[in-house]
Amino acid sequence: xWAAGPGxxxxxxxxxxxxxxxxxxxxxxxxxDATEFRAALDDFLxxxxxxxxxxxxxxxxxRLGSLQRVVDQIAHGADPELAIVAQADRLAxxxxxxxxxxxxxxxxxxxxxxxxxxxxxxxGPTEQGAADQATVLPQxxxxxxxxxxxxxxxxxxxxxxxxxxxxxARPDVxxxxxxxxxxxxxxxxxxxxxxxxxxxxxxxGVVLWREVPDEREPxxxxxxxxxxxxxxxxxxxxxxxSVPEAAEPAVMASRDGGVQVTGFGSVExxxxxxxxxxxxxxxxxxxxxLADGPCQAQPACLPWEQLALEVVVGDATVLLPAGGPxxxxxxxxxxxxxxxxxxxxxxxxxxxxxxxxxDENIEVLTRAVRTVDVGESRVVxxxxxxxxxxxxxxxxxxxxxxELSFFIGAKGLADPGKAYLDIEVSYLAGNDxxxxxxxxxxxxxxxxxxxxxxxxxxDIQPDRISDTVFVxxxxxxxxxxxxxxxxxxxxxxxxxxxxxxxxxPIPIRFPAK
Length: 513
Known about the structure:
alpha+beta; five-stranded antiparallel beta sheet; 18% helix; disordered N terminus
């Protein structure tokens, strides 16, 4: 329970009972839109019945979705008082104040008007006793009354109402009334419809209203006619426009498929199919948009829809549903929310709140350029242990394609921060008239990086004559291939020719990621 404060009991009692009258007359839909609700309050309340601060507080409870969350939580079985307390603290924080007490009063009054809580919840025990003894404020006339011998219309007390939904107007009782309205504001004009004589109001009178269009731009804060609370781990496809656009896409890639997350982040609510999707208390919504990504087998990468993607929320894993490419999922505010790709034996993830990659993500496959044409040739003098034919002592050594990869065949590296660098190296002997290059098999060919670091050479494909595959950092941009070593060739006389090539450096450059 909470106190409304001394000296304001009668006035606050009047406000929350006025809200009951308003909802009983107009229906719960009057609390769907903050702009319309404020206009209805201005029309319905007597001047001075509520302060500007109280009206703003009531309106913000609708505009910021706090009332809707209270109603949804009660509908899901939450204790009404606890739901009001929790959402009041959040409402005060959203308004940039610490006045949770006033926020509790506003939400309690609105929930009472909808029939979800009793009057003691609104007032607290002390104020309830004073309210019982307080003089009830008289009902105000809605329009200038027509003299009649019949008793005035008496509005029934509020009854329990369902959660807020968009109801259809009743054409059989809708009556338009001419009235003067202040320009630039949507108003609800209250009219008494007489069901009997034209000169007398009867007890069958019905309160109706007429919408006057707003000449201003819409505020954008309107709540759709229906809402749905997503519980933790529940995921829905949504319009792409509801997702915050990423400054730079987050990418995951494997051998046969990849995915880009082009938008991601936390959102307060999402409207999909005219339904407002919101989160429960102590949870939030995380939205994201997907697109096809790269893979090592380009251009034959599988589309993201065929990758069996999952979303990990805390310790739970949820399979991505059909639809999209945009989705929203509910999660606890402290829970990790990650898109997960399990493919080719690797568990890769992207954090959907900020786009950070997981520890096992294959880094090199996210690079835009992984293959370069080195295009370097060197004419080098070759020495031999035996006398060579004229011209045979001059070789032309060429370095062609250099490719960064992660998989050689079906096998990938153990460290996702590493990459294979496969370099095409060949030579053409000076006395070879065929023009066909031979691939070098020097024993001592090396690759050096910054700081003269020498990278490990791997015997990946033993059936190849040349073996110029090295394990390098995934973010490699500069390296130097050094050709040096010997080549042993048998002769027809059962001798062995040992060819020696001097140290020949050739630079290799990749663009940065």
